[in-house]
Structure formats: structure tokens, C-alpha cells
Design a protein that fits this description.
By secondary structure, this protein is of the alpha/beta class. The chain has 2 domains: 11-227 and 405-419, Rossmann fold; 244-402, Glycogen Phosphorylase B (Rossmann fold, 3-Layer(aba) Sandwich). The protein has 16 helices and 13 strands. Strand 6 (200-203), helix 8 and strand 7 form a beta-alpha-beta unit. Helix 1 (26-37) packs across helix 16. It is elongated, with a radius of gyration of 22 Å.
Length: 431
């Protein structure tokens, strides 16, 4: 491994095809992580042209702080095709990943065309590909970066959590037919070469780490990709007096579980012992409203701008989130940052983020089992909510210590030092 020219502030080329401060999901993760790393490294961000205007509005200087690569000639037609094939807005996620896997290599080749000479000349201590997050999308330039003697950092990688048994109907509603074939990507030579030429692999979930071949496990560092911006989530939960208040935040679709929550909570709602704030929009919304017709203690807020969500969240003591297929679980961290206590299904992202001293988990099972267990846990909490304020303080401290973007940047700086030989041991942030 090559030693960095400046161990304290390495020169890093960040490849983040999706990085946008004005969007949500993966683009917001890409932007937030790349931008946070600017505080601890000398960073140049390479992103796709669609993000250019938003990054300029965020105050970065084009050419100095970032470069926008125009790969639209190839990407736009494929993206339009993917939107037609997915058969519904927000559906067919696996189809969109297939389209991304087809279009992304062109973007990286354009990156190499522009930055390859500087990488070979040693102008950068490391190259770090932050997005795409999907482990199915290989890097066609990883081998070239490795050959240039520059460490290549991959990740955080996350995704591909299997659909749990008993939810085939939900799987089909989401147009996830290709998910049955997803594991085929593991046999692709491009994937093998990408992993071989990575100096460090950041894995955003234990499931993703389990899919990395054994011979590359020594390169893996577990680091959930989500974090929060303390400026955006700066308020403190101040639950309204009266019955216990809980909120649900997410798309109103079957796999997120809003219908599961309402069914589980129905006895408590009918008894007036619980109030629910349901935040989000989606195809299930009319059915959910019909399901709770006549109940004045269920409030549907529809879609709420992400800058305004916390104003609703802080009225509550509890985040009730029975999603059965969540890769990262960013909404769980956002709730914890405000001092809410999470109640989640113990599966994938949320299950890895929540511990008994600041949250509650129910086992994964079929729909009936989750309804049963969620109802039992809600009933216990409503019957004795006295522990919630103290648990909320622990939840908030957990996020402040480990899951702010600045904390994430400091953690990744340790990975950089390890990958370049300036730190002898592989970082382990969560045991």
C-alpha cells in the first residue's frame, strides 16, 4: 500500500454519480457523505450532470470542488426505458437497478477519460466510489486505479435484502419479478474484478457483508450508509399530553407496513389509548383512510417536504415502523435524532440500528405474526410509557455519537488511513 502524502488530509477523488443536496434517498446520501468528507480531506467530487445546478446552489465551485460528467446521451434513453418497464412510479426497484447497471459503466469510463491521467500521476492519494450504493453495479475502472498504485475504496454498499417468506403478494405488487434473478450478478466477472481491486470495501449492512466472498472479508468495514444532518434534525421530541403518540413515516405501500401498523394498533386506537401520525403518500393511502374511517386519533398528513417532517415528528414519543424490507433505515436514525424511540421489525437495516436500551424490535414473520407481535409490543408500551423519555435520550446520544455526517466522515478517514498504510489495524466501529 502507498502511504498518503498527507496522512491528516488525504487528497481524495470522490466518485458519486448520484449526489444531490436537493433530492432524497441515494442522491442525498451521496451528496451528504461526499460533502462531509470535505471537512477532513482535500476532496474533488465527480458526479453526473443532472446534479450540477443543485451543487452550485449549495455553494461549491465547479472545476475546483466538483466536476459534472455528462453521460446523458447513454443514460437518459435507458432511464426512460426503465421507467416504462417498471410499470408504476416507485415500483420495480430491481428493474431500475438492472438499467443502472447497464448505463453506469459509461459514466465511469468518462470519469477515467478525464481523471485517469491525474490518477496515474499520483495527484490523488485515494479514489473512493461512494455511489452507486448497490453491490450489483461493478466498477470498470477499479483495475485501472489499482494498476496506477492508488487505493480504490468501494462503498458503502447496501441492498438486495431478500423478501421475507409470506410476502409474495407484496413482492408482486412492487413489480419485483427480477428480484428472483438478482443473485446472478455474483457470477459476473466484472463484479469479481471490482472486489479484487478494491483496497477497502465499506458495507452498509451485515447482509451485504455476508454476500462478499470469504477471500475479501478482510477488506470489509461495516459502516451503515445513513446518517443525519444535525442542522436539519435539531429539535427535541416534546410529545403532546394525553394518549401516547406514535408516528409512521414512509411510502404508503405494502412492504413498508402502514396497513400492518393500523391493524396492530386498532384496539388501542378504538379505545382512545393511542394517537397515530401517518406521514407519507402512496397507492395504499385511500385504503388506509377507509380502514380508519371514524377514528379521530389517526392523522394522515400525506407527503411532507423533508425539511418539515421533524415538526410533526416531535409531537410523538414513538416511531412505529413495521417495514419488512428496508435496506438502510434512515428514517429510524432521523427519529432517534429527535429523541423518539423506534419500534421496528427485526430485519435488515432497522433491525441492525436498534438496540434494547433505546428501542424495541419484534421478530420477522409472516403478516399475521408481525401484526400480533407489533400489537403486543404497542400494548406494553402504552400500558407503561414511563421508560420512553430516558430511552429517547439514549437514542439521541447514539445518533450524535455515531450517525452524524461529520462522525461518518471521521470514521471513513480512519478507513483511508488503513487503506494507505498509515494505520496498522482495520477500523471496527460497531464491534
Amino acid at each position: 500500500m502507498n502511504t498518503m502524502t498527507s496522512p491528516s488530509r488525504p487528497k481524495v477523488l470522490i466518485i458519486a454519480e448520484a449526489a444531490n443536496p436537493e433530492w432524497v434517498s441515494v442522491p442525498l446520501v451521496g451528496w451528504s457523505l461526499a460533502n462531509a468528507l470535505r471537512a477532513v480531506c482535500d476532496v474533488h467530487i465527480v458526479t453526473q450532470i443532472r446534479n450540477r445546478d443543485a451543487i452550485l446552489r449549495a455553494g461549491l465551485v465547479e472545476g475546483q470542488d466538483f466536476t459534472a460528467i455528462d453521460s446523458e446521451t447513454f443514460a437518459r434513453p435507458l432511464w426512460k426505458l426503465g421507467n416504462r418497464l417498471r410499470m408504476g412510479d416507485g415500483k420495480g426497484w430491481t428493474m431500475m437497478q438492472l438499467i443502472a447497471a447497464a448505463s453506469y459503466p459509461h459514466f465511469e469510463r468518462l470519469v477515467w477519460k478525464q481523471f485517469g491521467p491525474a490518477i496515474r500521476a499520483g495527484d490523488y492519494d485515494l479514489v473512493h466510489r461512494v455511489t452507486p450504493l448497490s453491490p450489483t453495479i461493478s466498477s470498470p475502472i477499479a483495475a485501472k486505479i489499482h494498476k496506477a498504485g492508488v487505493p480504490f475504496i468501494l462503498g458503502p454498499l447496501n441492498g438486495g435484502v431478500p423478501w421475507p417468506k409470506g410476502f409474495e403478494a407484496e413482492r408482486l405488487k412492487e413489480r419485483e419479478w427480477l428480484s428472483y434473478l438478482r443473485n446472478a450478478y455474483k457470477m459476473l466477472p466484472a463484479r469479481r474484478k471490482t472486489l479484487e481491486h478494491a483496497s477497502a470495501i465499506l458495507v452498509g449492512s451485515r447482509h451485504t457483508q455476508s454476500e462478499i466472498p470469504a477471500k475479501h472479508q478482510g477488506k470489509c468495514v461495516y459502516l451503515p450508509e445513513n446518517a443525519i444532518d444535525p442542522d436539519r434534525f435539531s429539535l427535541q421530541a416534546q410529545p403532546e399530553t394525553g394518549p401516547l403518540r406514535a408516528c409512521f413515516i414512509g411510502r404508503m405501500v405494502a412492504y413498508k407496513g402502514p396497513d400492518i401498523l393500523l391493524e396492530a394498533a386498532m384496539p388501542l386506537l378504538q379505545q382512545g389509548r393511542l394517537v397515530l401520525d401517518m406521514i407519507g403518500d402512496g397507492p395504499l393511502l385511500p385504503t388506509l383512510k377507509a380502514q380508519t374511517q371514524g377514528l379521530k386519533n389517526v392523522h394522515f398528513h400525506g407527503w411532507v417536504d423533508h425539511t418539515k417532517v421533524q415538526e410533526i415528528m416531535i409531537r410523538n414519543s414513538l416511531l412505529a415502523f413495521p417495514s419488512i424490507r428496508e435496506f438502510g433505515g434512515g428514517v429510524v436514525l432521523e427519529a432517534m435524532a429527535l429523541g423518539l424511540v423506534p419500534l421496528v421489525v427485526d430485519y435488515a437495516g432497522p433491525g441492525e440500528l436498534v438496540y434494547p436500551d433505546f428501542g424495541f424490535k419484534t421478530p420477522i414473520g409472516d403478516r399475521a405474526a408481525i401484526v400480533r407481535d407489533f400489537r403486543a409490543q404497542l400494548t406494553r408500551i402504552v400500558s407503561d410509557p414511563s421508560k420512553l423519555p430516558a430511552m429517547g435520550k439514549v437514542a439521541k446520544a447514539r445518533v450524535n455519537d455515531h450517525f452524524t455526517w461529520s462522525a461518518k466522515a471521521s470514521q471513513i478517514l480512519q478507513v483511508y488511513k488503513w487503506a494507505t498504510g498509515n494505520q496498522p489495524y482495520r477500523p471496527d466501529f460497531f464491534g
